[in-house]
Design goal:
The structure is a single chain. By secondary structure, the protein is mainly alpha-helical. The chain has 7 helices and no strands. The chain has a domain of 148 residues. It is 81% helix and 0% strand.
Length: 237
């Protein structure tokens, strides 16, 4: 019976593999909170009408979620197209001149610290196993078996944005009209701090610092929007 390789670091749990989806999730939630709450606060400052604020919030949530989904789908589709094009170039190069491609891979491993003889042996074995995957990974930095997924990115971004944007909308529904402004501000700032801390926990960062920077940045955005809404409201009177 073949022995299974022993994991030399069984207790190490790395975080960097989460970078792609974690960045999209944190960006989506924070964008949903900040953009929707800022829009609603701007309307509050201009009109002081809860129905108008709710309409603005729901419209902002819908438009923002769809915009995030479409934007992420288009950008990730472009990334996937570029990855596929690069892989196709490697496939043609391997078919036309396999020895030159083998030398190129050998040189990459020499640059990474292997001796020339060992680098050649590694390159030959990887070429025999899966030459395209080896070049995609070590020359291009592309995982041949795990290309960018535009649909997954679009759905994740839309869901993340909706989760963030629904916070100020729900807060507005739960309070009286006189408390709308502070309910939006309070709930949004709390959620921003929580999302920043959760992102830090998942990514291995400093929770307090992550919560603080999101809290301050989101608060500044809402304050500026409220000021603009106040100026527009006074000008319209």
């Amino acid at each position: 019976m073949t022995e299974q390789p022993i994991d030399p670091h069984p207790h190490e749990v790395h975080k960097s593999h989460r970078a792609g989806w974690l960045r999209a999730a944190v960006l989506g939630v924070n964008d949903g909170i900040v953009s929707t709450s800022s829009l609603m606060i701007g309307v509050v400052a201009a009109l002081s009408n809860r129905n108008a604020v709710l309409v603005a919030g729901i419209a902002g949530l819908s438009a923002g979620a769809l915009s995030m989904a479409i934007g992420e789908y288009v950008s990730v589709s472009s990334q996937r197209d570029s990855e596929r094009a690069d892989i196709a170039i490697e496939e043609r190069s391997l078919a036309a001149n396999p020895e030159a491609e083998l030398q190129e891979l050998t040189h990459i491993y020499i640059e990474r610290g292997l001796t020339p003889d060992l680098a050649r042996q590694v390159a030959e074995q990887l070429h025999d196993h899966n030459a395209v995957a080896a070049h995609a990974r070590d020359e291009l930095g592309i995982d041949h078996e795990d290309l960018a997924n535009p649909i997954q990115a679009a759905v994740a971004s839309a869901i993340a944005f909706t989760i963030g944007a629904i916070v100020p909308v729900v807060a507005t529904l739960l309070v009286s009209e006189s408390q709308v402004r502070w309910a939006i501000v309070g709930s949004s700032l709390v959620m921003l701090a929580v999302s920043g801390a959760i992102g830090a926990v998942l990514g291995g960062g400093h929770r307090l610092w992550a919560a603080a920077r999101v809290f301050v940045g989101g608060g500044a955005a809402m304050a500026i929007t409220a000021f603009i809404g106040h100026l527009i409201g006074n000008a319209a009177l």
